[in-house]
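User: Hey, my collaborator sent me this sequence without any context and asked if I could get a structure. I don't really work with proteins. Can you help?
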Amino acid sequence: MAVGCVPCMEYYLPQAAKEGITTEEIGAVQSVVMAVATGRVNAQMRQVEKKMDKEQSKCCSA
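Assistant: No problem. I've predicted the 3D structure and written it out in structure-token form, which is a compact way to encode the shape of the chain:
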């Protein structure tokens, strides 16, 4: 789930169900994955914003 590989999820989710993992447990894992993914994207966005601010100050400071 964490890398968003659909074929992986299509394979492993039925495997998890065969092992007795419940839909609720899979949902709990999905919630954690979504929170981690959101944090990663936010961190990337902050890096881009900082870079853009630096570039803008270089060209527009004169």
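In plain terms: The helical segments are 6-18, 23-60. You can pass these tokens on to your collaborator as they are.
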